[in-house]
Write a structure and sequence with these properties.
This protein is α/β, with parallel strands linked by helices.
């Protein structure tokens, strides 16, 4: 895997071995960042179920001022930290070895909010998708004009509305789908 664009363009990053992580395809990553090109400058980026950290690293490379990485597996945390060092992004990165549900509550308690939230839960734990989306919605950590993207198997049915979030787009790439959410507009 490589960083696609920006300050660290072409830098090789590694993926954790033996964890069943699914590194995002370059085509999918490029499509996401093309959609986010006008919001990534100076953005705050939250990478939940971070795996190798490639999404947060790409965000920093393209101009995000800060990326927060949340991952539970120690081997993956070590890889994320190594990839951050490889790209020289230590100043813009915060890495938490934590359960996503716990960290989301702590981010809420600290008053943290994000312009872009990317979630890539394990496909093997089908029951996690709705609860994690609900936890993020309840925490109100997405900025008013922010966007949340969650990757799933393309067959996965995700709700149109979850708390204060509404789905506004669905894109499929191979066996994966990306569901896009934003804050619901207030009804008059």
């Amino acid at each position: 895997m490589r960083v696609i664009a920006g300050r660290a363009k072409g830098r090789e990053i590694i993926a954790p071995e033996g964890l069943g992580t699914r590194p995002i395809m370059a085509k999918m990553k490029e499509a996401l960042f093309s959609m986010w090109q006008f919001r990534i400058q100076e953005a705050t980026f939250l990478d939940l179920f971070a795996g190798s950290g490639s999404m947060g690293i790409e965000a920093i490379s393209r101009g995000a001022k800060k990326a927060v990485f949340v991952e539970l597996e120690k081997k993956a945390i070590d890889v994320i930290k190594q990839n951050i060092r490889t790209c020289k992004f230590e100043k813009e990165s915060v890495v938490y070895k934590d359960d996503v549900f716990n960290r989301v509550k702590l981010l809420q308690a600290e008053g943290e909010t994000f312009d872009i939230i990317y979630m890539d839960p394990p496909f093997t734990v089908d029951s996690i998708f709705h609860p994690v989306l609900e936890a993020v919605a309840e925490a109100h950590i997405l900025k008013e004009d922010g966007v949340l993207a969650i990757r799933s198997l393309k067959e996965k049915d995700m709700p149109e509305v979850m708390g204060n979030l509404e789905k506004f787009k669905l894109k499929t790439y191979g066996i994966s789908a990306i569901h896009f959410y934003r804050i619901k507009e207030e009804e008059e």
